[in-house]
Design brief:
Residues 26-45 are annotated as: Disordered. Part of the 30S ribosomal subunit. Contacts protein S5. The interaction surface between S4 and S5 is involved in control of translational fidelity. With 201 residues, the protein is an alpha+beta fold. The protein folds into two domains: 8-90 and 188-200, Orthogonal Bundle (Ribosomal Protein S4 Delta 41, Chain A, domain 1), CATH 1.10.1050; 93-183, RNA-binding S4 domain (Structural Genomics Hypothetical 15.5 Kd Protein In mrcA-pckA Intergenic Region, Chain A), CATH 3.10.290.10. It has helices spanning 8-15, 24-28, 47-62, 66-78, 83-92, 95-101, 108-116, 150-158, 192-199; strands spanning 120-122, 125-126, 138-142, 166-169, 174-177.
Length: 201
């Protein structure tokens, strides 16, 4: 399964925000990476550079590589609605992202591992494909044998985020993907219009 496995803090510093969640290393050095750090003179970025940065930020945030991301964009342009918004909605509807949003894992990377290791069910059946696209009404749960896993229990205890498009039943350790979120409901700081402009060139 292809995925980014490199240093996370370096990527977060590149974009100037903690895209992978809480990061003490990023808080200490929240300036761009490189030998000269803050002292290096950085010229004004071109329009293309800004668009490329925004696309890379979205890819790293959701843990999607280029080919898959491009295919998602093609799917978004073919669908009804504004392509940029549809693209983010497709990203949010991925199984690994919803597992992360539900608080079953503290990170998308961890959520992807739980899915691929067959700990997660969709509508009662085990699904081990992180990119699986959920539909409104789908029930996502923790497999019966996996409910006692310490990693899952600790994550659920520390989970504090609440999202309008997701419900969670802590007793059953399952939640419902109520609806595809609207753009206003998606908390990620991504300018999807730049991504559309980049791919439209």
């Amino acid at each position: 399964m292809a995925r980014y496995t490199g240093p996370k803090t370096k990527i977060a510093r590149k974009f100037g925000e903690a895209i992978y969640g809480d990061d003490k290393s990023f808080e200490k050095r929240n300036y761009p990476p490189g030998q000269h750090g803050n002292n290096r003179r950085r010229g004004k970025k071109s329009e293309y550079a800004i668009q490329l940065m925004e696309k890379q930020k979205a890819k790293y945030t959701y843990g999607i590589l280029e080919r898959q991301f491009r295919n998602m964009f093609k799917k978004a342009t073919a669908a009804r609605g504004i392509p940029g918004e549809v693209l983010l909605q497709l990203c949010e509807s991925r199984l690994d992202n919803v597992v992360f949003r539900m608080g079953v894992s503290p990170s998308r990377r961890g959520a992807r591992q739980l899915v691929s290791h067959r700990h997660i069910t969709v509508n009662g059946k085990i699904v081990n494909i992180p990119s699986y696209q959920l539909k409104a009404g789908d029930i996502v749960g923790v497999r019966e044998k996996s409910k006692s896993l310490n990693a899952i229990q600790e994550s659920l205890e520390n989970a504090s985020s609440v999202y309008e498009w997701i419900t969670w039943n802590s007793e059953k350790k399952e939640g419902t993907f109520v609806a595809v979120p609207t753009r206003i409901q998606i908390p990620e700081n991504i300018n999807e219009q730049f991504i559309v402009e980049l791919y439209s060139k």
